[in-house]
Amino acid sequence: MASADETEGGLTSVDFIQLQHYMEESSLRVRDVIKEFHPGGRYAKYTTGECLSVEGFCLFLKTYLEVEDFPPNFCQKLFRYFQQAEKDGSPKCSMPKEGGVFLRDVSCYFSVLEEGQPREKLEFTFKLYDKDGNGLLDSSEVDRIIAQMMRAADYLGWDVTELRPVLKDMMSAIDVDDSGTVTLEEWVKGGLNNVPLLVLLGLRMTEKDGQHIWRLKHFNKPTYCGVCENMLLGLGKQGLYCNYCAYTVHNQCANKNPEPCARTFVKNKQEIGKATHDWIKADCNSSKCQVCFKKIKTLAGKHCVWCQETRHDDCVVPGVPKCDCGPLKDHILPPWAIYPVSKEEDTNLLNVTPDGHILQIAPILDTHPLLVFVNPKSGGKQGERK
């Protein structure tokens, strides 16, 4: 839930959802629209220096969202929101002239929310604030980018008090020479290696087997981080949750080499048919160990991704007994039934993973694997839009 309220300069959660809906229906990108407001563009007369008037701002929204009859009251409310954001921004930055808003801040905010590829999106954000085109961002320009990320994150339900130091630490890490400036190469490299930033921007890393696929999540009951083992605190979405194995971490702990995700295929043909558990550290509090039958204390146990069996850490013995995939075994295609082959063995290249593995399936008798398709336009929007 957003922290902003219905006071002047604030947006409600309903306002933000409505804005997201408009963005989902639009086919344009910020980079397409911003050119029209630069010198020589169709709408250049609506900008004064780097600032947009209220009329220019409303025209920007109508153009970007492809909505000719965009509600005037909503447009005015969004304009006041950006005005208030400027007042609350860094004191190092000059205020927009004549009560306008900065075009680059508006563009950065919307670019954070729209879909995009990692490198392309990070490069756009960098060039947006590299006003003099010298290939460097100074600390004040970086602060403005972080400010826009914080505002977007707030309405997406992030705990921004936790995210801000994560981004600050990233900036300190990539400025290796302590020059106070960041190059494009440093910015892109740092961004692509910062998991919370990638999740915030809606970016996907190149998927590899054993790599977590994170999403931000709100937890309704006490939940602990698998890395630092401290509780996830906050009222909004307190941490990152792996869609594949349910491993959970603080935003800032996602960069601290968490345990790998469950495998989805074996590495060679010798492992085909060897049904072994994939143990993931989990909060098994109040669950019973299925070896010694005693209760498992918080973060003192592991669960198998495939059969859902839980055990104490000390009761986990590799390979004993074999994993039977649990009550849903009839519908599961386990990793020991999927194996990599060479290009010579499979010239059709029909099953290639994002990181280049060519896979084949060794069928398991008397099973009926089930594929589940989710419509992202329906319900909780948990699917991936194609």
Mean pLDDT: 80
Could you describe the largest sheet, including whether it forms a barrel? 3 strands, antiparallel
| CATH class value of the largest domain | Mainly Alpha
Gyration radius from CA atoms, angstroms: 24 Å
Q: Helix count, per DSSP? A: 10
Question: Your description of this structure?
Answer:
The protein is α+β, with helices and mostly antiparallel strands and 386 residues long. The chain folds into two domains: 13-200, Recoverin, domain 1, CATH 1.10.238.110; 269-361, Wheat Germ Agglutinin (Isolectin 2), domain 1 (2-Layer Sandwich). 30% of the residues lie in helices and 11% in strands. Helix 3 crosses helix 4 and helix 8 crosses helix 9. The two termini are 27 Å apart. Pfam families: C1_1, DAG_kinase_N, EF-hand_7. Keywords: Calcium, Metal-binding, Zinc.
Give the SSE layout.
Blueprint: H1 13-25, H2 30-34, E1 47-48, E2 51-52, H3 54-65, H4 72-87, E3 101-102, H5 103-113, H6 118-129, E4 136-138, H7 139-155, H8 160-174, E5 181-183, H9 184-192, H10 195-200, E6 214-217, E7 239-242, E8 248-249, E9 279-282, E10 301-304, E11 310-312, E12 338-341, E13 358-361
Antiparallel strand pairs: 1-2, 2-3, 4-5, 6-7, 7-8, 9-10, 10-11, 12-13
Helix pairs in contact: 3-4, 5-6, 5-7, 6-9, 7-8, 8-9
Please describe the structure with a list of short key phrases separated by commas or semicolons.
three-stranded antiparallel beta sheet, disordered C terminus, Recoverin, domain 1, elongated, DGK_typeI_N_sf, alpha+beta, 10 helices, Wheat Germ Agglutinin (Isolectin 2), domain 1, 386 residues, PKC_DAG/PE, DAG_kinase_typeI_N, 13 strands, disordered N terminus
